[in-house]
Specification:
This protein is α+β, with helices and mostly antiparallel strands. It is built from two helices and two strands. Strands 1-2 form a two-stranded antiparallel sheet. A hairpin with a 2-residue loop joins β1 and β2 (59-62). The longest helix is centred in the middle third of the chain and has 24 residues, at 20-43.
C-alpha cells in the first residue's frame, strides 16, 4: 500500500473518530501562518527609495 494512501486513510479515520481534531489543525495552520506573516513583515527589508517590490531572478513582484 502506498504511504500517502495510508496517511490519508488514517487522517480520515481520525477525523471521523475525533471531529474536533479538524479545528485544531485549522487553528494551528492559521496560527503558524499569522506568526510567519508577522515575522516576515518585521524582518523584511524596507526599501529606502520608495520602491515596493521584491526581486526574484529577472522578475519583480510588486506589493
Amino acid at each position: 500500500m502506498n504511504k500517502t494512501a495510508l496517511v490519508l486513510i488514517l487522517f480520515g479515520m481520525t477525523n471521523i473518530l475525533f471531529p474536533d481534531f479538524i479545528a485544531y489543525i485549522i487553528g494551528g495552520v492559521s496560527l503558524t501562518a499569522g506568526i510567519i506573516m508577522l515575522l516576515g513583515g518585521s524582518i523584511w527589508p524596507k526599501r529606502p527609495n520608495g520602491e515596493s517590490h521584491v526581486k526574484f531572478g529577472n522578475y519583480k513582484i510588486f506589493r
